[in-house]
């Protein structure tokens, strides 16, 4: 089934737009977007996406806090989540990986590689 549903949670409009356009055009996936952690959490519970791309640094409810909230709700605790972060230090990446996310994509990312990165992290094949 190619028609995956992805939820993108990022407080930057431009980043959300680039990701949405890329995933829809290249992979044919359905993309939903949220501009913050609380909105994303509510959408994830209501919509049950196949995967979540979650920005680490956001105001109010940041990525790690949002991910922890997702883990406490049975409808969302098994949804694979990939962090998006500008923090490239290996120690920070390891800290995020230890939370149990499915992968980490470093910003800025190459739009043309984004689908392959997501498929690789989630084992979705090509």
UniProtKB/TrEMBL annotation:
Gene3D superfamilies: 3.40.50.2300. GO terms for biological process: phosphorelay signal transduction system. Keywords: Phosphoprotein. It comes from the Bacteria. It comes from Lyngbya aestuarii BL J. The keyword Phosphoprotein applies. This is Response regulator. The modification 4-aspartylphosphate is found at residue 55. Residues 5-122 form the Response regulatory domain. It holds the Pfam family Response_reg. InterPro entries: Bact_response_regulator, CheY-like_superfamily, Sig_transdc_resp-reg_receiver.
């Amino acid at each position: 089934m190619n028609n995956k549903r992805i939820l993108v949670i990022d407080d930057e409009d431009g980043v959300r737009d680039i990701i949405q356009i890329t995933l829809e055009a290249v992979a044919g996936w359905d993309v939903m977007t949220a501009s913050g952690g609380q909105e994303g959490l509510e959408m994830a519970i209501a919509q049950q996406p196949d995967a979540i791309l979650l920005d680490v640094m956001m105001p109010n409810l940041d990525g790690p806090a949002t991910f922890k909230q997702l883990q406490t709700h049975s409808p969302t605790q098994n949804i694979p989540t990939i962090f998006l972060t500008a923090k490239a230090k290996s120690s920070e990446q390891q800290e995020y990986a230890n939370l149990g996310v499915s992968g980490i994509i470093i910003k800025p990312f190459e739009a043309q590689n984004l689908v392959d990165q997501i498929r690789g992290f989630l084992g979705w094949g090509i």
